[in-house]
């Protein structure tokens, strides 16, 4: 993404516009029940993480002082986060459009939902809440290399908007920032926020023999569709954060040209002849999920 380092191809107005989406967290307005929801989510998730989450994630969670008792105050969290990597969490109201989203990331501001899910949504909700955004994302924003990676992603996103390749770039974010796995000396470990804020997917991604686990390949990932409403059928595995940054810190122009010339779209469960396959999934979970869907519709 190096070609996107300086300036903003969409114009200076976008930077100012992005800040219009930032709201006050309204910490004083959280109810005791909402803090209790945080406690329940935190306790459940934390017990699942040893041996499944990467050690950088767990270390940074402690370094940031993300506590188990109440929804963190962004102002307090940001003091530590800014000191570590210059990032900060900013509250936004729900999902925001692409341009301000990319702009905030390019400015090292991570847009976070300030609301917390209801008790009947403990296992899944589509819109990111404060548990997903803070518990899931803040620890990796405190990692120096990953911090640079997400900023570069924001810068690349601004350019991609002009090129009509947002979908491809979104897949990169999805399969790394949200659902990434990494090789470590102890075995594969999770670093993706979408997995680590979901108890079901934490266990599934780490322990199940159903999903594919495939070595990360930039262009391949950009061509692969994903599921937004169920566990992933394939996970992509990076060698290290340094390697992820190295693979993505490049001029995407030639890749975009290739993708436009041959917009190959792989299904989530496809395994290709050139893939480095770390686990060839049985696909049992995905097949059962498809069957359930069919019956529900039929
Ligand atoms: Fe997220």
Q: What ions, cofactors and ligands are bound?
A: fe (ii) ion
Rg over alpha carbons: 19 Å
Could you say which overall geometry the principal axes of the C-alpha atoms support? globular
Instruction: Classify the beta-strand content into a percent band.
Output: 5-15%
* Derived structural class: alpha/beta
The total count of strands amounts to 8
Q: Alpha-carbon distance between the termini?
A: 46 Å
Q: Secondary-structure element order, as H and E?
A: HEHHHEHEHHHEEHHEHEHHEH
Across the major sheet, the strand order is 5-4-7-6-8
Give start-end ranges of low-pLDDT stretches.
Answer: 1-7
Biggest sheet statistics: 5 strands, mixed
Mean pLDDT over the residues: 92
Essential attributes:
298 residues, alpha/beta, five-stranded mixed beta sheet, three-stranded mixed beta sheet, disordered N terminus, binds fe (ii) ion
Task: Give a description of the structure.
With about 300 residues, this protein is an alpha/beta fold. It has helices spanning about 15-20, 30-50, 55-65, 75-85, 100-105, 130-140, 145-165, 165-180, 195, 200-205, 220, 240-250, 255-260, 285-295; strands at about 20-25, 90, 110-115, 180-185, 185-190, 210-215, 235-240, 275-280. The strands form two sheets. It has a five-stranded mixed sheet. β4 and β5 form a beta hairpin. Residues about 1-5 have low confidence and may be disordered. It binds fe (ii) ion. The site of fe (ii) ion has 6 residues, from α6 and α9.
């Amino acid at each position: 993404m190096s070609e996107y380092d300086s300036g903003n191809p969409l114009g200076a107005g976008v930077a100012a516009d992005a800040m219009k989406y930032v709201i006050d967290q309204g910490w004083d307005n959280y109810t005791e029940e909402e803090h209790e929801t945080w406690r329940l989510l935190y306790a459940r998730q934390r017990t699942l993480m040893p041996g499944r989450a990467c050690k950088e994630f767990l270390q940074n969670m402690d370094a940031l002082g993300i506590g188990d008792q109440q929804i963190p105050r962004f102002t307090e969290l940001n003091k530590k986060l800014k000191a570590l990597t210059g990032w900060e969490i900013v509250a936004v109201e729900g999902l925001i459009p692409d341009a301000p989203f990319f702009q905030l990331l390019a400015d090292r501001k991570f847009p976070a939902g300030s609301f917390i899910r209801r008790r009947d949504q403990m296992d899944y909700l589509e819109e990111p809440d404060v548990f997903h955004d803070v518990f899931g994302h803040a620890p990796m924003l405190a990692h120096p290399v990953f911090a640079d990676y997400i900023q570069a992603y924001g810068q690349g996103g601004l350019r991609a908007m002009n090129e009509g390749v947002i979908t491809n770039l979104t897949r990169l974010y999805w399969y790394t920032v949200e659902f990434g796995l990494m090789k470590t000396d102890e075995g594969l470990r999770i670093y993706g926020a979408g997995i680590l804020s979901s108890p079901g997917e934490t266990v599934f991604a780490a322990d199940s023999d159903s999903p594919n686990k495939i070595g990360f390949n930039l262009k391949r990932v950009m061509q692969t569709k994903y599921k937004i409403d169920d566990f992933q059928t394939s996970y992509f595995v990076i060698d290290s954060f340094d390697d992820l940054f190295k693979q993505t810190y490049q001029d995407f122009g030639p890749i975009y040209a290739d993708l436009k010339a041959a917009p190959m779209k792989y299904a989530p469960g496809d395994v290709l002849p050139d893939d480095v396959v770390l686990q060839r999934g049985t696909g049992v979970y995905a097949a059962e999920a498809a069957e359930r869907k069919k019956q529900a519709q039929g």
